[in-house]
C-alpha cells in the first residue's frame, strides 16, 4: 500500500518485508498499488459511468447515497450502523491524478478476493466508505 508517496520509500518497504520475515510470514508476491493504476482507473471510470462517482474541481468524488444505512460487520464490536445521511461524499482520485488509499485498498482487496480484514478500531470510520465502494 504505497499511495502515500512521502512515507512509501524503498527503505520503509524493506522494513515491512523484513518485519514479515521476522514474524515467519511468507508470501508468493506483493503488489504496489501505484503499479496497478490502470486497474484503479478502470474501476473509477466505471463508478463515474454508473453515476456512483463524479468529477469536481479536478478530483473524482464518490457519491454517498443520502438514504439508508451502511452496516459494518465487526467480529469484536458486532454490527455497527452508519446512517448514510451522516456520511459525506469523499475523494477517490486526487486532482493530481493519484488515487487515495480508501479507494485502491477496496479495489485491490476485491480483485484479490480478500474476505476478512484485520485493522485497528481507529479505521472503523473508513469502513463504511470502503463498503459503499464495493
Could you describe the 3D structure shown?
With 134 residues, the protein is an alpha+beta fold. The chain is 33% helix and 18% strand. It has a three-stranded antiparallel sheet. It has a two-stranded antiparallel sheet with strand order 3-4. Helix 3 packs across helix 4. The longest helix has 13 residues. The two termini are 18 Å apart. It comes from marine sediment metagenome.
Q: How many E-type strands?
A: 5
CATH topology: Rossmann fold
> What's the architecture in CATH terms?
3-Layer(aba) Sandwich
Distance between the termini: 18 Å
Query: What is the highest CATH level, the class?
Result: Alpha Beta
Q: Could you say how many structural domains there are in total? A: 1
Helical content class: 25-40%
What is the rounded Rg? 16 Å
CATH homologous superfamily caption = HUPs
Count the helices. How many? 4
Q: Going across the major beta sheet, what is the strand order?
A: 1-2-5
GO molecular function: ATP binding; glutamate-tRNA ligase activity
Keywords: Aminoacyl-tRNA synthetase, ATP-binding, Ligase, Nucleotide-binding
InterPro entries: Glu/Gln-tRNA-synth_Ib_cat-dom, GluQ/Sye, Rossmann-like_a/b/a_fold
Organism: marine sediment metagenome
Amino acid at each position: 500500500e504505497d499511495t502515500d508517496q512521502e512515507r512509501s520509500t524503498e527503505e520503509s518497504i524493506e522494513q515491512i518485508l523484513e518485519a514479515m520475515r521476522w514474524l515467519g510470514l511468507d508470501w508468493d508476491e506483493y503488489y504496489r498499488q501505484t503499479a496497478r493504476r490502470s486497474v484503479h482507473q478502470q474501476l473509477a471510470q466505471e463508478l463515474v459511468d454508473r453515476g456512483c462517482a463524479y468529477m469536481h474541481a479536478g478530483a473524482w468524488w464518490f457519491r454517498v447515497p443520502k438514504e439508508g444505512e451502511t452496516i459494518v460487520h465487526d467480529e469484536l464490536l458486532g454490527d455497527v450502523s452508519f446512517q448514510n445521511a451522516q456520511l459525506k461524499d469523499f475523494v477517490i482520485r486526487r486532482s493530481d491524478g493519484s488515487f487515495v488509499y480508501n479507494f485502491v485498498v477496496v479495489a485491490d482487496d476485491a480483485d484479490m478476493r480478500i474476505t476478512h480484514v484485520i485493522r485497528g478500531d481507529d479505521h472503523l470510520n473508513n469502513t463504511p466508505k470502503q463498503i459503499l465502494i464495493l
